[in-house]
Structure formats: structure tokens, C-alpha cells
Amino acid sequence: MFPTTVVYGLTEDLDVSGTVTLVHRRTRIGATGRTIENDGVADIPLQLKWRVWQKDELLKTTRFALIGGLEVPSYDRNFSSRSFDPITGVVWTCQEKDWWLDWDVLYQLNTGQGEFRNDVLKYDVAYSRRLLPLEIPAKKPWGLYGVLELNGSYTTDGSHLIFGSPGLQLITPQAILETGVQLPMVQELNGNQLKHDFTLVLSLRFQF
Q: Environment class of residue 199 by beta-carbon count within 10 Å: exposed (0-12), middle (13-18) or buried (19+)?
């Protein structure tokens, strides 16, 4: 999967984002050994985030935001639900000089058919801590951070997935480079869904 996300700040407290994900899928049929490959575009989530509360202290900030949006169908025959699905959620962040903690909860009301008929509750918790440098440079500040995440999703058909996700972040004023791995910890599947293997993650963010 190759997602591209664009975030634009409308005001200090309000931003809008959209994600377009290119997908390459290779499926091996166990009984026959046949392999099927598909390429396409997944459905596109459009989100609005509104920071409703912020408390700033010396070398510390705490923030709370609301999220609303809509997943718009790409109409790709291999990867699209072909339905418009509302999204709502909350985000909380606490950041100090050397570390920060984030959590979010998102609920997606799916209006599609078949495998896309079930709603999804997603939740994430992430802890980041600076590893290098020991003191933030006064000029051209940068930081190498260790990250530990817990990523979960519950589907209204009773399925539940939880991933543990350790990683590293290199943060500069202009860009953020992140690498990590998602390891399946819980896979309670209620249906004919495919089981998840580990996932390698590499992302690059530019800040303007």
C-alpha cells in the first residue's frame, strides 16, 4: 500500500486532510497454487479536525480535537466499497520537552454491502521519546525518537485486531522520516477475512 496524505491548515485550530492510497495485492490460492495480482486505488477518506481545547505550560502542551469526515468511494472494482461512509472521532495529545503521548478513537459508519457492510471502531495509542540528541540544538533543531504504538480495530461483525508497532522517527523542521513494523498481537476474525502478517512501514512527511 502506498498512501499519500495532504493536510492543509484552514486556521490555527482547524485543518482538512485527504488520503489517496495506491494498492498492489497478490493473492495465492492454496488449493491450486494459482496467483492473482490486482492494482488499484482504495476509497479516499476526507477529514476535518477541529482543535477545541488547548492548554500550554512551560515546555508542555495538552490538546484535544474532534474529527469528522467521509470516506469517498474510488469506484475501483477491486478495492472500493462503492459507498459513502461517515467518520467521527476524537484525538488527545500531551507533549513535553522529551516525549509525547497521543491517542485517538475513530468510528466509521459503513453503508456498503457484503464485506463492506460492517461498521469499524479504530483506536490508537502512541508513546514517543527523544533518543538523540540529549539536548535540543539551538540552531537547526532535530531529534531521533523511539516510538511504541498500539493499533486496534473492532468490526461490528465481532472481529477484533490489535497490532503492536515499534518504530523510529527522525524529526527536522522541514521533514519527518519514520520507519517501523506492525506485529499482530490479537486476531479474532469472525468470517472469511484473511489473517494479517507483520507489516513494514516507511513514511516521509514534509512540513510547509
A: middle
